[in-house]
Amino acid sequence: MQENTINKIVATINTAIQNQDIYGASYSLIGKNVNLRTYVGFQGNNSNHIPLSSGMLYDLASVTKVIGTTTRIFQLIAAHKLSLNSEVGDYILNVPYSKITIKNLLLHNSGLQPDFDNVHTMNKQELIQKIKNAPLIYTPESQTLYSDLNFILLGWIIEKIDHVSLNSDLEKNVFQPLDMISTFYSPTHIALSQFVPTEYQKDRGGIIQGKVHDYKAYLLDGISGHAGLFSTLDDLTQFANVFLNGGKYKDVQVFPSLMYTLLKNPLYRQNDRTLGWKLWEYHKNMFWHSGFTGTSIALDLDNNICLTNRIYPTRSNSAWIKERRKTLSIFFNEKEAVRK
Prior knowledge:
- By secondary structure, the protein is of the alpha+beta class.
- The chain is built from ten helices and 13 strands.
- The mean pLDDT is 92.
């Protein structure tokens, strides 16, 4: 990564903070000629005017989908416990979409709706039944429509195969092997001041801090395949380093070789998606994903991780979305080439 590129990324993030689009940012730039880890700004304002520092925890939101769920699915495929053509009905009974496949879920072309409008009126069991009874709103594989339901189902399928809870499963098979000691669901043993706050929601008692922001994950006890993980910049930098260096860490092939083969296969690229990950450029191996709370991870020959919050104190502050894409376009050295 050229020094000019690094300077542009740093300047873009600093400008976003100066303009109060965000209160602060924790970000990492790693590659063949750079190893930059930066904490700038604060958790928030007023009572949250605490400087960002190493070890502070971010609600990853949908970055959960790639850090945890997608990684474990690739491991299970490599271990021949699952295949891309395995059907949902093989693991979850009595659903109207039993024939959609693991591939459909990963590519977000399953035919399931993106979300539910009235999730804040549901309890846990009502949400589970709503997911299990969800109709297909289009023919599978006919279009791409990003849906949390796809990854909620993938989380349930992982639990069915491994016969343990998703949090225990990911800790054992992904986070512990990578020495990601600060990545977990539903953290209750950490001081509140270590969490970067997300959004003010009156019905949840004010500013959400130390609890999962996503309401579906909240109803599911904070543990889901689509959202719920908390992590630090150090842990995600570790994840990215191993990912970019062939997937082997301490003599353990944490990211199976098959994962790289499948991610690079044009058969599994549709619009702006590949298996689990988003594509920045269709014909290049530029993988990324973002989370509603403002988090993002982008991987190329070099690597950039940017963790911050765009919904503190309210989701009406959308300025960071534009600045985040600008930062990613600088990192990838080109404008986004697939549909936005």
